[in-house]
Amino acid sequence: MEESKRYKRMGKQTMGKKKKNKKGHGSGSGSGLLQMKVRKLQILIPGGKQCNQPDLLLLKTVDYIAQLKLKLMFLKAISGSL
User: Fold this and answer.
1) What's the whole-model pTM score?
2) Whose CB among 5, 29, 48, 50 lies 3.0–4.6 Å from 42's, allowing a Cys bridge?
């Protein structure tokens, strides 16, 4: 499945920005938990492993959920007609 135009557009916008070296404030346990959840989401979403940016991953996730809903509606319609 090809990436939509907004993924490509979003990638171009974020690629131009320089990454800042973030030093954790406090214990930093929250960021580790977030990174773990992002990694799990990357595994679940098709093409998620190629997304290194959380905002792109979330866009892919939303599109994937919408796609799954459409498939479910289609399968319900087919099974109802039989």
Assistant:
1) 0.60
2) 48
User: What is the spatial distance between Cα 22 and Cα 71, in angstroms, rounded to a whole number?
Assistant: 41
Q: Which residues contact 63 (CB under 8 A, 6 or more apart)?
A: 4
Is 36 a residue whose pLDDT tops 70?
yes
CA distance 6 to 20: 24
Question: Under 8 Å CB-to-CB from 41, ≥6 apart: which residues?
Answer: 48, 57, 61
Number of residues assigned to the chain:
82
